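FAQ: What does the model actually see?

It sees only this:
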Amino acid sequence: MDFAPEPVLYDENGNLSQVLDPRPVRRPYCVDISGDFIIWRQYPASALRSSLKDYIAWDYLPSPRSQFANPSGDLLASFIKLGSSDDSDSLLTFAQKWGVLGICKHNYPYTHNQPAGQIEVCYPLGWDEQYGWISEFREPLSAWKFYSRQAGAILSMITKVNQGSGPSERDLAIATDPLNSDYDLLPDKPSNEDASVSKFIIADYVNRWLQLGNVHLSTSWLKRSPAVHLDYNNRLFGALAVQLMMAFYRQGFVVCSSCGKTYNRKGRRPKNGQRNYCPRCQHRSHADRQRDYRQRKRLNGIT
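And it is asked to produce this:
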């Protein structure tokens, strides 16, 4: 099941009814990797002209349509894969296709500090008051690792709780501190948290991502009828937060019985206790059935 943003509103009976119009994500003009940083520009340096000096402090400069892309259903899953890979080329390809996180001096996406009337507003690292959005920005690769691993841990917790078990100690540790390498020493077994506490923890993490991405409702009336949007100012982190929210609601991810990784399952969900396999481990299903069959024969005294 894909998790392209198709959020909906509740009707008077508490049922989900009205589909909201999703927003595209905005890609920078150019993205590259230098050392331990992603380097990016929202606009070409040639955009710095005297006629634009009144606008460069704000995000009002026009962008070509090619710099916008509608988030695909596998956006979140593709982002999570980056956390388990040391391949900087994959990260660069992703950033060029979907945009950047916009990390600020607090190591959050800069959208974390954007409420109406806020006196101090954050900007991405590299912001220059003289050049505004024509500055050359940077963000540490470690921040991408951090948020990718955290998203993966939150998604894994959602999946495991929905399958009848609690979040693992490892998932809880990664969600709390994704850059702590000691989490690999923790067992991937259910924690001692009961179901209600686990669900509260998961909801809190998802809400935190929505806050960091400045996800909010907005309206427009550009066509015959007014439209309601789930808005995140065309920023990647907000789009990821929306897909994480949709995974929380639609519950389409499951854990592979073979490799233990979370994957996006197509079609019907497996029953509790039923083996299921990600595409990479499908070939192991026959061997597991044969092993189960032999074990049942031994238990029944059949040779």
